[in-house]
Specification:
Elements lengths: L3 E10 L7 E7 L4 E7 L1 H12 L9 H11 L2 E12 L2 E10 L5 E7 H11 L3 E3 L1 H7 L1 E2 L2 H5 L9 H8 L3 H13 L3 H18 L1
Parallel strand pairs: 4-7
Antiparallel strand pairs: 1-2, 1-7, 2-3, 3-8, 4-5, 5-6
Helix pairs in contact: 1-3, 2-3, 7-8
Length: 199
């Protein structure tokens, strides 16, 4: 089957479901976006998986499963979003045994599959049919405001702008220690913005 590769464009608050988030995947060639409604925990887990340099003091469920996969001598090869039924996406996670190349395919919720894929830097694919059924064309400008997944208000961003870099690092360490990942990701984004200005 001819699969279409997707990239993660961002995570934003869901406009349709209260307390949920929208994971925005995009087919790079056509710019068709695939919005997947996910829960708060999964949104945090995907964001932490993308960040790489924020490490919770205790492993999250997806981190634990990642360690198990590696310990069992498997690698995550790809994620395939193969179907959508009544607005629900169906996905497979494809593994390969490093010792004998034996393949293992597990059914998974799409949010869990993506959370695992980002931890292995594995590609995410879908079918043309899924893109036809659920894909939408959005201008990037519409999305850019929403790409900061856990920024509650502009006021909180302004508060962070008034804090020194050294103080930001302390706040980041404290937030991670307390497992307040919403705040940690917010602070991390501010640190990144400042480092880009310096570069």
């Amino acid at each position: 089957m001819d699969y279409k590769q997707l990239i993660i464009r961002g995570i934003s608050y869901s406009q349709t479901q209260s307390g949920a988030y929208a994971l925005l995947l995009e087919h790079e060639e056509t710019h068709i976006k695939l919005p997947v409604v996910i829960g708060n925990f999964e949104a945090q887990s995907i964001s932490l998986g993308l960040e790489k340099d924020i490490h919770p003091p205790r492993p999250l469920t997806h981190d634990l499963f990642t360690k198990f996969i590696v310990s069992a001598n498997y690698e995550l090869v790809s994620v395939i979003i193969y179907q959508i039924v009544d607005g629900v996406f169906f996905s497979n996670i494809n593994f390969k045994n490093k010792a004998n190349d034996e393949e293992l395919i597990l059914d998974a919720r799409t949010s869990d599959a993506v959370a695992m894929a980002v931890r292995f830097d594995a590609p995410i694919f879908t079918t043309q049919q899924v893109l036809n059924e659920a894909g939408i064309l959005l201008e990037l400008e519409d999305v850019s405001k929403e790409e900061q997944p856990f920024s509650e208000t502009a006021q909180s961003e302004d508060n962070l702008k008034a804090v020194s870099m050294e103080e930001l690092q302390k706040l980041l360490d404290e937030a991670v220690k307390e497992e307040d990942f919403d705040t940690a990701l917010e602070i991390q984004e501010e640190i990144k913005r400042r480092k880009k200005k310096i570069d």
